[in-house]
Amino acid sequence: MARVKNVIRVTVGDVAKLAGVSRSAVSRTFTPGAPVSAGTRERVLSAAKELGYRPNALARSLTQSHTNIVAIVMGEFDNPFQPWMFDALTRHLHRGGKMPMLVTVDLAGDPVEPIYRALDFRVDVLVVAAGSLPDESVAACIESGVPVIMLGRSVETDIVDVVLSDNHMAGAQAATILINSGHKSLAYVGGSEGRLASKERGEGFVLALDNMGVGLTQKVFCGSYSYQAGYEAALSMLALDKKIDGIFCASDSLAFGVMDAVRDHLGLKIPHDLSVIGMDDVPMSSWPGYGLTTIRQPVNKIAEFVLERIDYWSVPGEKQPVLQRIPTELIVRNSVRLG
Amino acid sequence: MARVKNVIRVTVGDVAKLAGVSRSAVSRTFTPGAPVSAGTRERVLSAAKELGYRPNALARSLTQSHTNIVAIVMGEFDNPFQPWMFDALTRHLHRGGKMPMLVTVDLAGDPVEPIYRALDFRVDVLVVAAGSLPDESVAACIESGVPVIMLGRSVETDIVDVVLSDNHMAGAQAATILINSGHKSLAYVGGSEGRLASKERGEGFVLALDNMGVGLTQKVFCGSYSYQAGYEAALSMLALDKKIDGIFCASDSLAFGVMDAVRDHLGLKIPHDLSVIGMDDVPMSSWPGYGLTTIRQPVNKIAEFVLERIDYWSVPGEKQPVLQRIPTELIVRNSVRLG
DNA sequence: TTCCTTTGCGCAAACGATTGCACAGCGTCA
DNA sequence: TGACGCTGTGCAATCGTTTGCGCAAAGGAA
């Protein structure tokens, strides 16, 4: 059965005619705070309801200085943390009355074109999951002239907001629990050496160990946060040095890789022979198969803060970017031998 | 240092002035197929480049009958398959010149309001991840008057496109490999009984078994596709009947739950004592810790087809919705005992 | 009654594009 | 030379809103 959808779009004009008022009056009833008498407001509202009228957001955006569209710029979903963060973000945006428009940068494709295409829609803000993005894409965002909120990567300029987890704190939390539970020989598995998050987590870890008078036995950066990378890192580290009894990983997926390598390939018991700590607290960490003790990145707090900053940038005036660190939280499960 | 971003928006008018032509000429140079002489085109392009002009997509959408915005309507990310599918979808949309606008329906919040908010932007199409959505949300989409492409759930009306994996085929593929490799007592772990996908996968499985003269030992619907559900289902099934030697699960996450329950809690070996087959082929399936043999839902094929349908609906005329099944593919790993 | 202040409403001009229509220029053909 | 067709171009209307401004009506104060 062929069937054609045929929606006649109802406009301010239609509502105005039915309510017997001017288009301005209609517009004003839908603008909070605008002066309308109770009488007209009521007639307008009932006319609008009868016709099923809703203001055209495109037309509205044309006259106003904002669109309520927020672009989310991301790279590949190569880490389970990303969809997790992403989900929290979109939910908060909705709550704040914003519409998220998604820009996925394809590593194989043009790193800037999709960003320009989003800017064509006059998005209010660019929220940039900077960690997973090529430098060119990040640069394009910064130069766009639109407020930028950067997630998880610090950046050389001082004109954009940066929000990231308190990575030093995270490293310290991992060090503390490992030392307090009597571990002797510790290692760190980072992601990409060039990336701030991996670097800071390692620094925080080492610094805290130092303060407790312990040295770091081994450190490895594997270039990505992937499971595979963790798997391989664990094998090569333990081949080099068998007495390592605690490993802090810069992401949960690295940690999963480490755990599987150590259990399946080397036949060690976790946490009896070796303790593993991850970072992120993705849902999978709580699966009994892993039961990963980890440092949680508080995605909801981060998303909340992003929303605050969006509101901040949305009012005109002299503006001041911030760099905000969100405290992390130790989540204790079963991958660390206690006491 | 306070710093204000101050972007003067450049418009057709500015470009026209600089190039010494009318606004129409500028517009036409940016409209493929419109009549412009080589000379003016060149002058316009160079003026545009000098000013950094790009057409305002909002203004353009106002006059045209389409916006190039595609809404993606989703529920919770409660299944790792969803971000996976979602990622493929957005990439294909970008390739097709569409911008994805994300609508996440919060189970705790209003099931329709976010959808209306997206419609306010006059999105061209609603792509609906129907499986994870409340019925009211789905209904609102269907009644919106905008073309709808429904993913993974069939629906009572015949005015929307439906695209789903060939679930019967998937069930048959699972049955075939299990029987051919000599399994005797088989069980099926479904998600939500009311949901088409779970139902069909089970039917396909049972039907294929029937054809091979084998009966189904047990069947369970756990109400969701989650890891937890799989974990519990496995325990209760095996408590009831210890000789089950093959389980087909309606999703990979169910399968992970089953595997962990069976290995960690019951101490069985996979695939030696019990074979497990999943469905989806999420990236995690290939992790050595699981090595799950599974039925792949071809997300790229699905996304490709969605894009085709979007293009189909975008040209005006008498339209015919379709129901399309995408063939699935058996991915052999190590969770099924062969031969 | 007169004057002044509110309050609410409508007119018309934006916002930044696209596009139907008319027309100028120019070459071609009879 | 005149008629005809083709190309390109510009004018002006249009898309669906918002909003500054002027003004009428109403109400209060003197």
Automatic annotation (TrEMBL), chains A, B:
PROSITE patterns named in the record: HTH_LACI_2
Sample GO molecular function, one term: DNA binding
Entry-linked SUPFAM superfamilies: lambda repressor-like DNA-binding domains, Periplasmic binding protein-like I
Start and end residues of each HTH lacI-type domain: 10-64
InterPro entries per UniProt: HTH_LacI, Lambda_DNA-bd_dom_sf, Peripla_BP/Lac1_sug-bd_dom, Peripla_BP_I
The keyword Coiled coil is assigned to this record: no
Highest taxon in the source lineage: Bacteria
Database matches in Pfam families: LacI, Peripla_BP_1
Keyword tags: DNA-binding, Transcription, Transcription regulation
Listed name of the protein: LacI family DNA-binding transcriptional regulator
Source organism of the structure: Kiloniella laminariae
